[in-house]
């Protein structure tokens, strides 16, 4: 093989076909896989050479090693009994869109660097906005993850204080504060770290028994800080918390933000998808009063990792922080109304809109609605099994497709319950037939399953419940 140029065309074509066949078969037979690999830290790396080969190798050898060395260390997130985290699932149209984006390898940084990438991004963002009931007053931008979207939203909020942090930095600035509930995602703290505010600038507000932020506690905390001459500037409300999918009371939180002129960012990374259902629209109540909102199609809208949509009513604040046009792109700046490089820290940006476009078209709005509704039904079904079992209880209300529950056998002391539930999760996962996680609610360990995979059916949940029950029995006996 020549040391110059790409692979010979016939080989490239052959292997693209083979990989396509492999991926199709992987998806068809994914249920046969053990979900978690049976490996120890370092096992996979131990099989890999410390340096790349000096000369190019045959794809056949590379592909063999992919199957022999890499696959044994894969967790099968796409398995229908993978019920961890927010089961960010992949789908056939999502895979196809990602492949096409890889083949094109364009950068969606300015309109001129690929007009279709920019215009499709704007179009797809508009589609999703309409599907989840966000008004056209909000403009969107795609980032990789919700963590990054929230970082950008809070950077815009910091600029909106008028302190001109972009130019002057933070020296001499008052202590800036962000408010979020005790249940809000850790990405809020990471954003505070990245923005130079420090972790202690995030005030965690207490929640009610349903794990929703208490607006009265928020109001009191802000008043206390204002009185102490500190500078509250942003509130993050969550629609679909990480542990239990709780929904903060956004309208009442928006009232506090309006009174105190605070930026309201809504983290609807997971829960925004529920608003696709007419009966789920309530989760977006009050969101039109927010300054920004993030929705993650890679969590529950069937778009593969990564794709996170930030919408803001104040896009000019994002531009105020991030627009910085180097000389070599100055021509591009004159060329277009919108260059997405002006809305974030990244310059080079993947063509993520393509996979989202393919998923939305292949399933259709009604198809997405039906899948989400089915996931809600399945979660409710699972919750019914839990509630009907005298040895188990729900640990939080079921609002979406997440069920938090715990084993609570009669007569067991409270202090032993955490260890019992932790062991059940570990044992159930160790079977390789189900994947669930644990969380801590009100200081107590709870098990957690999340339904979000288009391949998951009632049979998979029934099997998962049987595995969990078996782990419970064995833990009690052993
Ligand atoms: N917000 C919520 C409510 C989450 O649950 C998560 C992750 O699960 C995030 C934000 C972060 O999402 P990402 O992985 O896209 O950064």
| Side-by-side strand order of the widest sheet | 1-7-6-5-4-2-3
Determine the fraction of residues in helical runs and give it as a percent range: 40-55%
- For the termini, the CA-CA separation is 60 Å
Radius of gyration, in Å, reads: 24 Å
Unreliable residue runs: none
SS-derived structural category: alpha/beta
Report strand %.
Answer: 5-15%
Task: Kindly state the number of beta strands.
Answer: 11
Mean pLDDT: 95
Bound molecules: pyridoxal-5'-phosphate
H/E element string?
Answer: HHHHHEHHEHEHEHEEHEHHHEEHEEH
Sheet with the most strands, sense and barrel status: 7 strands, mixed
SS field, number of helical segments:
16
Q: Oligomer, anyone? A: single chain
Judging from the principal axes of the Cα atoms, what is the shape? globular
Features:
7-stranded mixed beta sheet; binds pyridoxal-5'-phosphate; 4-stranded antiparallel beta sheet; 478 residues; single chain; 43% helix; alpha/beta; globular; 11 strands
């Amino acid at each position: 093989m020549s040391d110059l140029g790409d692979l010979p065309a016939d080989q490239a074509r052959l292997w693209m076909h083979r990989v396509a066949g492999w991926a199709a078969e992987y998806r068809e037979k994914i249920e046969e896989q053990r979900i978690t690999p049976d490996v120890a830290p370092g096992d996979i790396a131990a099989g890999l050479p410390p340096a790349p080969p000096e000369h190019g190798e045959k794809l056949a050898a590379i592909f063999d090693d992919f199957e022999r060395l890499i696959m044994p260390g894969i967790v099968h997130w796409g398995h229908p009994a993978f019920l961890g985290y927010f089961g960010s699932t992949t789908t056939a149209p999502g895979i196809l869109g990602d492949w096409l984006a890889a083949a094109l390898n364009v950068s969606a940084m300015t309109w001129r660097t690929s007009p279709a990438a920019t215009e499709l991004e704007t179009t797809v963002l508009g589609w999703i906005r309409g599907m989840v009931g966000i008004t056209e007053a909000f403009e969107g931008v795609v980032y990789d993850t919700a963590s990054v979207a929230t970082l950008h939203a809070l950077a815009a909020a910091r600029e909106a204080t008028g302190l001109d942090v972009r130019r002057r930095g933070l020296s001499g600035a008052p202590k800036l504060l962000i408010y979020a509930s005790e249940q809000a995602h850790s990405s809020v703290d990471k954003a505070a770290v990245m923005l130079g505010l420090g972790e202690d600038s995030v005030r965690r507000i207490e929640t009610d028994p349903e794990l929703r932020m208490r607006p009265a506690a928020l109001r009191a905390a802000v008043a206390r800080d204002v009185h102490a001459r500190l500078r509250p500037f942003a509130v993050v409300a969550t629609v679909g918390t990480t542990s239990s999918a709780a929904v903060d009371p956004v309208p009442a939180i928006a009232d506090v933000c309006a009174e105190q002129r605070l930026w309201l960012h809504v983290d609807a990374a997971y829960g925004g998808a529920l608003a696709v259902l007419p009966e789920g629209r309530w989760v977006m109540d009050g969101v039109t009063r927010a300054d920004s909102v993030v929705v993650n199609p890679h969590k529950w809208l069937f778009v593969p990792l990564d794709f996170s949509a930030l919408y803001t009513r104040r896009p000019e604040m994002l531009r105020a922080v991030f627009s910085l046009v180097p000389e070599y792109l100055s021509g591009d700046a004159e060329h277009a109304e919108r260059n997405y490089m002006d809305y974030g820290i990244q310059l080079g940006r993947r063509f993520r809109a393509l996979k989202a476009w393919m998923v939305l078209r292949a399933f259709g709005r009604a198809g997405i609605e039906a899948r989400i509704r089915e996931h809600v039904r399945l979660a409710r079904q699972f919750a019914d099994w839990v509630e009907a079992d005298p040895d188990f209880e729900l640990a939080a209300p079921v609002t979406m497709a997440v069920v938090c529950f715990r084993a609570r056998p009669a007569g067991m002391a409270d202090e032993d319950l955490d260890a019992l539930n932790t062991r059940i999760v570990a044992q159930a996962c160790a079977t390789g037939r189900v994947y669930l996680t644990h969380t801590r609610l009100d200081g107590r360990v709870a098990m957690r399953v999340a339904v979000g995979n288009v391949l998951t059916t009632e049979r998979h949940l029934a099997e998962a419940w049987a595995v969990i029950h078996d782990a419970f029995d064995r833990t009690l006996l052993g």
